[in-house]
Design brief:
Number of helices: 24
Radius of gyration: 33 Å
Helix content: 55-70%
Distance between the termini: 26 Å
Largest sheet: 8 strands, mixed
Strand content: 15-25%
Structural class: alpha+beta
Number of strands: 24
Length: 833
C-alpha cells in the first residue's frame, strides 16, 4: 500500500520534485562529465603512446641525475658515437638517434603559434622515418633551410606548404621554408617542428649529439636486448625497454589527468553539497504541507517506519531520475570539454562503469541523506493531528541548534587554522574538513542570524514599497529555518567565490608591493617560451644607445645534500642592485665557484660565509661551491644564487632566461629603442616595473576568472533552490494569498511582494556568504604571508557587484512563483484548506 502512496505523491507533486531533481542533475552532471572526460582522454593518450613506441624494443638515454623534463628539452644528451656502438650489439634492429628541443613557429600575423607561457610544449625534433608523425602533404625536410610542421600549427598560423616563416629556437631566429605538413595527433596543443637531423642537432642540441637512441629487436626479448645494450654503454647512460618507456609516458599523463580529475571533482562536490541544502529544504516543506495527509495515514494504521519509507521512496525516485539525467548531461559536458582539446579530443567518448556507478551513488545517496531528517519528522506526526484544523509540525528548541552550530563553526575554524599552519600531512584534508564544518555550523546558526539581518535588509523595502514591502519582510521572517536553509545554498557558492576574489586581490596587491620593493633594474628582457635570449639578441641589447649594463641570468636545478633544488645564476653584483638584495653577511663579490643563499636557507642548513657546499649538477659532476654571502629573503631571486661560471661549466647548451638591463635614462625613448632593436625577435619582450605588474595581474585575473566560472555551477543550483522554496511557499500560502486578494491587494502588488521576499532571501545568503568568504580569504593571507602574500586586499567593488548579482538572482528566481501567485483564482484560494 505504501508503495502506491509513494507513487501517488510523486505524481501529485511533479513540478516540485522536478525542481528538486534539477539540483541532483547539475551536481551529478559535473561528476559524470569529469569522470567520462578523463577516462576518454586517458584512453586516447594510451593509444597514442602505444602507437608511438610500439616498434621500440630498447631506448638509450642519459641517466637522470638532476633536473630534466618529460619532453626531453632539458635532458642530458647522448653522443652520436653511441649510435655506432649499439649497431654492433647482437639483436639490435634499425637504431635511430632522436633529437628533441625547443622550437616555435611564427604565424603570418607575426605572433608565435601556441601559448608559450604555462602552455603546451613547443617541440623541435629531427625528422626520422620511425617518428610519431606522418606526412599528409609535401615532403621531408632536407638541408638547413627546410622544415616540416604539424597541421594544427599550420592552421593556427595561417601557414601552408611552400610558405617561408620564422622559426624560434634557443639560437637566432631562422627563416625556413615549410616543405611538408605532418599529422602528429597534436597532443594537448603541443606544436611540432621537424628539421633534418644535422639541422636539429645544431639548433636544438649540439652537433654530434642525440637526445636518445631508440631501436627495435631482431629476435631477443626486450629485457634480454636491454641487458646486452646496457653492457656496451658508458657509465652515464642507461638502457630501458620499450615497455618501460611507454609506461613512463602513460604514468606521466595519468598523473596529470588524475590531478585534473581531482581538481574538477572538488568543484563537483561543492555543487552537490549546495544541492543537498535544496533537497533538504524541499522535502521539509513537502512534509509540512502534507501534515494532515501523513497523519491520516498514521490514523488508518500506517506505522512510523512505513511513513518514513514512503518519504524516502520519493527521495530515491528523485535521486534515480536526477542521476539518470545527470549522467546524460555529464556525457554532453565531457563531449564539450573534448572539443576544446583539438585533435587530442578526437576518437569519441569512452564509457566505463566508474562514471555510472558514481553518478547513481552520489545522486541517490545525497538525495536520500538530505531527505532522511524530513522523513523522520513525518513519521513522528501523531494520528490525532488529522482531526485538527490547524495542523503544524512542532518546532524544536533553537538551543541545541545554536550550541551545535557554534561548536561546528569553532571546530571548523580550528581545522582550517591547523591546515594552513602546516602541521604536517596534506593540508587540503584539514582545510576541506574545516570549511565543511564551518558551512554546516553557520547554516545551523543562520536562523538566529537571519532575524536581525533580514530586518535590516528589509527595512528599505518596508519603508519605500509600502504594504508589499512590509509583507515581504514579514514573510521572510515568518519561518527563519526555511529562509536560512534556502539562503545557505547561495551562501556556500558566494563564500567560495568571495574567497577566490579576496585571494586574487591579495595576490595582486602583494605582487605590486614586491615589485616596488625588490625590482631595482630599469628593464628586463625575457623570452616567451623556452628559447631564452640568444647571443645575437644580447649583442643588439648591448648596442642600444643609453644601455649601461646588460647582464644575463640563468636558472637550473642542482642536487645539494641529496635534494634537488632550484637556483638562479648570474652576476651577483648586478643582481644585488637589480633585485635590491639586502646582504646580511658576506658580500656579493663572488668567485667562479660561489653560491649565495637567503638567510632562511642558511639558518636551516647551518651554513655560514665560507662554508663549502658540495653540489651535483645535471651532467653528473659535483662542484664544491663556497658560500660567499647571505641575503634577506627575495621573491624575485629565490633562495639560491650561483655564479654564472658554475652554471655554464656544467651546462651543455646554456639558455639565458632573463637579461637585466640598466640604462642611463629609463624613459620612453630608451624603451622604444630597446623594442626596435628586438623587433626581429617575436619571442622576446621588454618589461619595466609597470609591465611586470600588469603581466602578473593578468595571470592572477585569469586564475580568478577560471575558478569563479567553475563555482558558478553552485550558484545556479542555489538559484534553483530559491525558485523551489518560493514556489512551495506560494502553494503553502494559497489561502493567505486569496485573502490578500480579497481585501484589495492587486496582482501587481502580490507579484512585487514575492519578488521582494526573494531578493531579501538572496541578499541574506550573499551577505552571509561574502562575510565567510572574506574571513576565509583573510585566514589564507595570514597563513601565506611568509610565502609572498604579505598584503591583505579586499575587493570591495567586486563584492558590491556580487550583492547586485544576488539581488538579480532573487528577481529571476521569483518570476515563475510570482506569476503563478498572480494567476490564482481568489475564491478557490480562499476555500483552500
Amino acid at each position: 500500500m505504501m508503495g502506491k502512496v509513494t507513487l501517488r505523491n510523486l505524481a501529485a507533486h511533479k513540478i516540485r520534485l522536478v525542481l528538486t531533481a534539477v539540483a541532483v542533475i547539475l551536481g551529478v552532471a559535473f561528476v559524470a562529465g569529469t569522470l567520462i572526460f578523463t577516462d576518454s582522454m586517458n584512453k586516447r593518450f594510451d593509444e597514442v603512446f602505444s602507437s608511438i613506441s610500439e616498434d621500440i624494443a630498447v631506448d638509450v638515454r642519459a641517466k637522470k641525475v638532476v633536473g630534466g623534463d618529460d619532453d626531453g628539452t632539458a635532458a642530458q644528451p647522448v653522443p652520436a658515437s653511441v649510435l655506432e656502438t649499439v649497431k654492433g650489439v647482437d639483436g639490435v634492429k634499425d637504431p635511430i638517434g632522436n633529437v628533441t628541443g625547443y622550437a616555435a613557429v611564427v604565424g603570418k600575423d607575426g605572433e608565435i603559434v601556441g601559448t608559450p607561457q604555462n602552455g603546451p610544449p613547443q617541440l623541435g625534433v629531427n625528422w626520422t622515418t620511425s617518428g610519431f608523425f606522418e606526412l599528409t602533404s609535401g615532403r621531408a625536410p632536407q638541408g638547413p633551410a627546410e622544415v616540416v610542421i604539424d597541421k594544427a600549427t599550420a592552421e593556427s598560423g595561417g601557414l601552408s606548404v611552400g610558405d617561408t616563416t620564422q622559426v624560434i629556437t634557443a639560437g637566432p631566429p631562422q627563416r625556413m621554408k615549410i616543405v611538408g605538413l605532418a599529422d602528429t595527433g597534436n597532443m594537448m596543443g603541443t606544436t611540432i617542428t621537424a628539421f633534418d637531423t644535422p639541422t636539429a642537432q645544431k639548433l636544438l642540441l649540439k652537433p654530434g649529439y642525440f637526445s636518445d637512441i631508440e631501436m627495435g629487436s631482431a629476435g631477443p626479448s626486450e629485457e634480454e636486448l636491454r641487458d646486452r645494450v646496457a653492457q656496451a654503454l658508458p657509465q652515464n647512460l642507461e638502457a630501458i625497454t620499450g615497455t618501460e618507456l611507454r609506461e613512463e609516458a602513460q604514468s606521466d599523463v595519468a598523473q596529470m589527468m588524475g590531478f585534473f580529475r581531482t581538481f574538477l571533482l572538488a568543484f563537483a562536490l561543492i555543487s552537490i553539497f549546495v544541492g543537498a541544502f535544496i533537497i533538504f529544504n524541499t522535502f521539509s516543506m513537502l512534509v509540512a504541507q502534507r501534515t494532515r495527509e501523513l497523519a491520516l495515514l498514521r490514523a488508518i494504521g500506517a506505522a512510523r517506519a512505513q511513513v518514513t519509507r514512503a518519504v524516502i521512496g520519493e527521495a530515491v525516485a528523485v535521486g534515480v531520475v536526477g542521476s539518470t539525467l545527470g549522467l546524460a548531461a555529464g556525457a554532453g559536458l565531457a563531449s564539450l570539454l573534448q572539443t576544446q582539446m583539438g585533435d587530442a579530443g578526437e576518437g569519441g567518448l569512452t564509457f566505463t562503469a566508474t562514471p555510472v556507478i558514481w553518478s547513481y551513488t552520489v545522486g541517490i545517496v545525497v538525495t536520500v541523506v538530505s531527505a532522511y531528517f524530513p522523513a523522520r519528522r513525518a513519521a513522528k506526526i501523531p494520528p490525532v493531528a488529522a482531526m485538527r484544523d490547524d495542523v503544524a509540525l512542532p518546532q524544536r528548541s533553537m538551543r541545541i541548534r545554536i550550541a551545535l552550530g557554534s561548536l561546528l563553526t569553532a571546530v571548523g575554524a580550528a581545522l582550517i587554522g591547523l591546515g594552513l599552519a602546516g602541521g604536517g600531512g596534506n593540508p587540503a584534508v584539514p582545510v576541506g574538513a574545516g570549511a565543511f564544518a564551518v558551512f554546516i555550523g553557520v547554516a545551523m546558526l543562520a536562523p538566529v542570524i537571519s532575524v536581525p539581518v533580514l530586518r535590516v535588509l528589509g527595512a528599505p523595502a518596508a519603508r519605500l514599497m509600502g504594504a508589499p514591502g512590509r509583507l515581504a519582510r514579514q514573510n521572510a521572517l515568518r519561518n527563519p529555518r526555511r529562509t536560512a536553509a534556502t539562503a545557505a545554498a547561495l551562501m556556500i557558492g558566494l563564500a567560495l567565490i568571495t574567497t577566490v576574489n579576496v585571494l586574487g586581490a591579495t595576490m595582486r596587491a602583494s605582487i605590486d608591493e614586491q615589485v616596488d620593493a625588490q625590482f631595482g633594474a630599469d628593464y628586463l628582457v625575457q623570452s616567451q617560451g623556452a628559447g631564452g635570449v640568444n647571443a645575437e639578441a644580447r649583442q643588439k641589447i648591448e648596442g642600444v644607445p643609453g644601455v649601461v649594463t646588460a647582464s644575463p641570468t640563468y636558472d637550473g636545478e642542482v642536487k645539494i645534500d641529496g635534494k634537488e633544488v632550484f637556483y638562479v645564476a648570474g652576476d651577483a653584483r648586478v643582481l644585488t642592485d637589480a633585485a635590491r638584495l639586502k646582504i646580511v653577511s658576506g658580500s656579493a663579490a663572488a668567485g667562479p665557484s660561489a653560491i649565495m643563499v637567503d638567510e632562511d636557507t642558511a639558518a636551516d642548513r647551518g651554513w655560514k660565509v665560507g662554508t663549502v657546499v658540495p653540489a651535483q649538477f645535471p651532467d653528473g659532476k659535483t662542484e664544491r661551491l663556497t658560500l660567499s654571502g647571505v641575503y634577506a629573503k627575495s621573491d624575485l631571486i629565490g633562495p639560491r644564487l650561483l655564479s654564472p661560471q658554475a652554471h655554464l661549466k656544467h651546462t651543455l647548451k646554456p639558455t639565458v632566461s632573463i637579461m637585466v638591463v640598466d640604462t642611463a635614462e629609463a624613459d620612453a625613448a630608451t624603451r622604444t629603442a630597446l623594442e626596435s632593436a628586438l623587433a626581429g625577435y617575436p619571442n622576446l619582450e621588454v618589461a619595466d616595473q609597470a609591465s611586470l605588474k600588469e603581466d602578473a595581474r593578468a595571470q592572477v585575473d585569469g586564475f580568478v576568472t577560471f575558478l569563479t566560472i567553475l563555482l558558478i555551477m553552485s550558484v545556479i543550483i542555489a538559484a534553483v533552490g530559491v525558485i523551489n522554496t518560493l514556489a512551495l511557499s506560494v502553494i503553502e500560502r494559497t489561502r493567505e494569498i486569496g485573502l490578500l486578494r480579497a481585501i484589495g491587494i492587486s496582482r501587481r502588488q502580490l507579484r512585487r511582494m514575492i519578488r521582494l521576499e526573494s531578493i531579501m532571501i538572496a541578499l541574506f545568503g550573499a551577505v552571509l556568504g561574502m562575510g565567510i568568504g572574506v574571513a576565509f580569504g583573510a585566514a589564507l593571507q595570514n597563513a601565506l604571508a611568509d610565502d609572498g602574500l604579505g598584503v591583505l586586499a579586499i575587493p570591495y567593488g567586486t563584492l558590491v557587484v556580487y550583492l547586485v548579482v544576488a539581488a538579480v538572482i532573487g528577481v529571476l528566481a521569483a518570476l515563475w512563483p510570482a506569476w503563478r501567485a498572480g494567476r490564482m483564482d481568489v475564491l478557490k484560494a480562499i476555500s483552500t484548506e
